Amino acid sequence: MPIYKIRGIDVDFPFEAYDCQLVYMEKVIQSLQERCNALLESPTGTGKTLCLLCATLAWRKSLGGFSTGRSEWNGQIMGSQHSDVPHSQSAKTNLPTIIYASRTHSQLRQVIQELKRTSYRPKMVVLGSREQLCIHEEVSLLRGRAQTNACHSLCRKRTKKGYCGHYSRVSDFMKYNPGLGDDPIDIEDLVNIGRSNGPCPYYVSRELHKVVDILFAPYNYLIDRGNRKSLSVCWNNSILIFDEAHNLEGLCADAASFDLPSWLLTACISEAKNCVDLSISRREIEKANDKSCNPDNFAILRALLLKLEKQIAEVPIESKELGFTRPGPYIYELLADLNITHKTATMLIDIIEEAALLLEEDAKGAAQKTKSTICRLETMSDILKIIFRDGGNAHAKFYSVHVQEIEANAADALKGKASRTLSWWCFNPGIAMEEFSVLGVSSIILTSGTLSPLESFAQELKLEFPVRLENPHVISSNQIWAGVVPAGPSGCSFNSSYRTRDSLEYKQELGNAIVNFARIVPDGLLVFFPSYYILEQCVGCWKNKSHANSTNSSTIWERICKHKQPVIEPRQSSLFPSSIEDYMNKLKDTSMSGAVFFAVCRGKVSEGLDFADHAGRAVVITGIPFATRTDPKVRLKREFLDQRGLSQKEGCKVLTGEEWYTQQASRAVNQAVGRVIRHHHDFGAIIFCDERFAHPNRQSQISLWIQPHIKCYSKFGDVVFTLTRFFRDAGTHGPPQLKSRAEDRGDVNEMKIAKPLERSYEENSLTPLTISMDKDKFVKPLSSVLEAKRGNFSSQLGGVLPANCSSLTPYEQNQSLTLSSPSDLFSKKKSLLIPGRKIMQCSNSEMPYSFNSSLLGEKPSKEVLVTCTAKKRRIAKLDPDAMQNFELSHHHPFMVKNAQSNDHLANHSVKHDNSQLADGTNRETQVGSAMLLEDDAPKKDAEFLSQKGKGVQSSPVPCSDKETRGSAFLIQVQEKLSTAEYKEFVGFMKALKSKAMKIGQVLESIARLFSGPERLPLLKRFKDYIPAKYQSLYQQYLKNNEETIDTEESFSS
Q: Which of 291, 317, 710, 1041 would suit a FRET pair with 610, their CA atoms being 20 to 30 Å apart?
């Protein structure tokens, strides 16, 4: 396996790593070394989980070896019951424990599979619930608190009749199996151990987690305070990782909130009455004075609940839409009238737990051992714990009390009752995360494929995240089509706002567009709507016969069905598995050209499902999924953020209610878009059918890796044409067929040295990668790591290759090379190996092939500058014969290979009659040893701009006036544009380089970026960098912008 040295840590990675994977691992290790928090976004398919595991475990291993089985277990198991010191601390002498959390057990199962692919073998365990791990024939049938109480009861009673035999075997099993957890094990493995050897899987995991190096658990084990306190983990100095963390803020807020609807309170009252009757009956039968089943206690509980029900019913609600709202501390006033305070709440919780146990025993006696055994009273216990947490009320300032009246159900309507819900909503999700800081957690790493926008995410969680990353994808530009479709086939604008979404014209136009997409897109098509309401309205319209086209008797729905079989996401969660199965079955139907899944943003389809390859070739976003503004929770959240912003000191950065509202919608879009293009060989289209996506501010909130590929189409015909061509080309050629990385690993380990990014800057140079090259092995250099520091990941998208597919063939067997390989327009240099000549180092910054010689209509030069041993520079003719044995890869215009090699990665040949590359790029290059510094970026950008209208210089020259002006111009661009807009500006330049956009489209996009009075001078100055043949087109855009500004000024005056 390759070993990469990253920030001084040897990282053993199972495959040759992509550049973006190395950058990701560097950020993880930086966070761990500096004991700070990290916010890391990396698209699905970039190996995020594998990188996270390898980097974290490599760092942990550098502190000391992983826990070994016998040396720790012999002294721990037998003495663990009498030690007050957390076992993880005493066992490993303060070495940090890694806690790896994900949302679901199915996701954790995938993480364990990734761990098995690595060379690291830390002691580990996965925590699961009794519901998943219990193998007791009776207790395993129960659920919730009933199962927990039954388990506790059986484990404490040491009678033959009531003792759990599985629990009794745990101690001996752990003693004689000290190596358990040394190899990756999953929940299923623990269950199999229990069934075959007898020990309880649940308590085996609970014993094992005391001495592990890495602990895997679902979110709720960490966010829920009760679950967290049950863990024997030394939190001080520990590492906390939240994978798939895009919903973490919502989960934290929900975990600290509660809703108490009328029907639930009524059920609690009924259960309290049952407890009174049961306790009286038990006392009469047993004739015992058992205080634990005192009917008076249950009668008091019932009376309090009745009084609470009455109080909620009497709350004055003037407007059903607005409900009744009070600040968070009001909840204590409400409960004080019931004599429920911090002191009495504890007693009340104990009574509720007794009631739950009594109801459970009664259910057993009635042979009701079913999965539906639920005690509603336990909900009241949870509510009291949330309200009276930490014995104080300081947290109440982050809450709001709300009472909402809803439509009464039939039973309440007959009784004349109003159906109401008492809510206590937490609007500061940082409450849960701040607790980890108090516990002394060293680093918290949050990662997901869709965290953008990062700033709002950090502000919501109230944590500092000094380390941040928005990684690019590993795909190339020919594997993605992304476009904004502002209007449909008839020219009707697409806008799903409440003003237009109900109009017949909008729904028909959207339907006709989807008919076209269903015809063009092969295999699976995903169509996401902002809400179930809009989905149902549109489908209903499309099925309506009266809305059929006058020239075509078929309805829109029937026309869609001619191309693809439809599936609609159901509202009911219970029906969702069958709808997924239906979709997959329809995809397999060879009589049709695929299936279309109509789904909803924030729904089941948009969360965590993998529509790779043919399952999802395109995703259509039909609108922006804003939450309902009038929803009480949304309204109060916005008010809370706005009020907090007013109370902050001037200069402090705060998240406003409107920003939160907008960014929540953007994050939902990113989640839906992330269902397609799931790995580095995948390809697909992302279609934004809403004119609002054309706005730069809206695009800046789309995941960064998508932004450079997004184009705005003014005509629907252009969409159809380019989309058809995309799938035609992708279907014919497909993504590059690369050697499997497993095959390319070989038996020889290699050391790759990736120097720290910060050190590279301190030295003001990019230290190249030095490798020892075997005959059939070559790796991709790491120079694009420097670009990660600048955040210009958009520039890498077109050129990132898997590291096992080198851009160069070794010139000589076992030859040691120093390579520095650029992957974007504005960076570094690259070595070309020419037979019989010195290694030629080509500066891409001097080869601006987005405005190349072919585009400009100039003749290419046949001269290159070759480095001499005396460190002088000379001009040398490039011998065409010397080049005929080389081929040009379709991945990168400078990726060459020896024709005699057996590895066929390239398919474009170099012409013999000139030195021009297959895409028209001039070979005239500068060769030298100078490295590009971060501070040189504006200068290099200026060189790029200044060379558009002329041939490229063949030798280094001092900065001319034109270059100086270009540098000044770029500085002005950076000042006038936001960070996101400047990235977009650079992205357009890169898209032009990869020929993803034509110069006309680039000019249109630049004109849009430079719109407005304050940016008009930038657009005027951009004229200096436009080739003469395109000046007329440029003038049109300039004139349009000037006229628009004049019009706006006349209206304002």
A: 710
